[in-house]
Amino acid sequence: MGSLYSEHRTWLHAVPAGWKLGLLVVVCAAIFRLSSMTHLGVAGVLCSLVYLSLGQAMRQGLKPLRALLFTLVLVLAFHAVLQQMDVGVVSVLRMASACLLSIALTLTTSSGELQDVLERLLTPLQRFGIRADRFALQLALMLRFIEYFFVVWNRLDDSYRLRTGKGGGFRLLAPLTIQMLQTARRVADTLDVRLGEPPTSKPRQ
User: Fold this and answer.
1) In whole angstroms, how large is the CA radius of gyration of the chain?
2) Cβ–Cβ under 8 Å, residues 119 and 103
3) What is the pLDDT along the chain (205 residues), one digit of tens a residue?
């Protein structure tokens, strides 16, 4: 599978995944409680510095960064039409800060590290008969698939642009859906074999 995880080692790779996830939750919660444009501006600059400090690893995150910029422009334009520029600027600063930190986390945290953290956090649920390891695997796969399908979407868009000279847009929904279904089928079959799940009563369609 393609991945946004960068093999270029940065200082953030050395930080344990649990610390990164915890700090991301705390910082994002604090950012969304701020309402002052000055404070949000400072937060935005600090989050940008964290992202820029990743150096070579930033190249892996250019595509999600372009998508983020496009979204921010749309949000700002929407509030401009409603003549609510103050609200628009505050929303954009919040979104940009949180997304920059999230992309930095994605670039520097592997799926295995993420799954280990989730499994430790979910261990108390075993008292209620819930398999923490499998629940953590499901959550990790869900997060991994979001990242993976974003990469697939970009590949399809690049291919379409090479053939036609323009972006694919909504035309890519059908081929992306087919690839999502095929990937889900392969992963389900693999998990059946690796985890020793009993065969289903009905064959999959």
Assistant:
1) 20
2) no
3) 456 788 888 999 999 988 998 898 899 889 988 888 899 999 999 999 999 999 888 887 787 888 788 888 988 898 888 888 888 899 999 989 988 998 898 889 887 888 788 888 888 877 877 777 777 777 777 776 776 777 777 788 888 888 887 777 777 888 888 887 777 777 777 777 766 655 444 444 4
What totals of helices (H) and strands (E) does the chain contain, helices first? Answer: 7, 0
List CB contacts of 113: < 8 A, sequence separation 6 or more.
17
User: How many Å apart are CA 179 and CA 117, to the nearest integer?
Assistant: 29
Contact at 8 Å (CB) between 15 and 53? no
Compute CA 201 distance to the chain's CA centroid, rounded to the nearest angstrom: 35
What sign for the dihedral angle of Cα 2, 192, 177, 147?
negative
Distances (CA, A) of 79 to 40, 41, 95, 98, 137: 18, 18, 14, 19, 40
Q: DSSP letter string over 151-179? A: HHHHHHHHHHHHHHSS--GGGGHHHHHHH
d(C-alpha 129, C-alpha 30), whole Å: 35
